[in-house]
Amino acid sequence: MEIIKIENYKENRFKTGIVLGNFDGIHLGHKKLILSMVENCKKTKSIPSALLFTKHPKEVLLGKSPELLTSLEDKKDILNDLGVEIIYQIDFTKEFRQLSPEEFVKNILIDKLNVSSIFVGFDYRFGHKASGDAKLLKELADKYKLKVAVIDPVYDEKRVLSSTKIREHIRNGHLELANEMLGRSYRIKGEVVHGNKIGKTLGFPTANIELINNYPIPKIGVYKTNAFIDGERYISLTSVGTNPTVGGDSLKIETYILDFNKSIYGKILFIDFVEYLRGEMKFSNLNELKLQMQIDLESIKCKH
Question: Which comes out higher in pLDDT, residue 23 or 263?
Fold first, then answer.
């Protein structure tokens, strides 16, 4: 897959089909939209592409990253898996923000990206102060002889499936519902850093995770997870909490990886959350904590 910054670029190699949107999480609704675009490109012999901002607009406007289900790098990986061949990237600059809806279509999509077909969701907004909608996009497409497809919403529990709802499920510990909407397990990634070594003392050495991106944090508790290190998958048990038994007061994410004894400090660890097992508990002593960890491990082994 190609990644191209478009500020000083003009696509003159081929016609492109493009999917537009923020795509936080790339949930099942997003997936339907993206796959529709990819399938159409096969029929029209155009190249399937996506246009993404280098930074989320809220990060540019507010100076800090919003809580996102997927980072830009996460999105690239998922889009590649779905068949997108080119990701065009653009900075959310003051000049870009001031483009009218028609200027966006003409100056960016047509003149720069050589677009022949555009795929958007039902709630897509674009142009200065988000003044353009799907209806206006269709009108502009007719003017410039482009194909536009507006994909209907995907429903879950009689509500429109949304990234906001998925984040809510994650914070409430409803991982199975969140994963169902995502079409995959919710994933975070971070660097393995040194912790207080309590797990090692108990015979259950854990990897302490320092998050790389501003992900929604699952509800405090213990989860069945899958850990991925250097592309290899391992069954794991992940605790999100403060370690109250040893007087902890700051939130930590720690993962015990089954059948694994290598040093991974400094490595990037991917954690897929599969199932919420129980809430955080404060024990009278470390022996009680060790016993509960053994019970938790037996639980996930039985479910494996």
Answer: 23
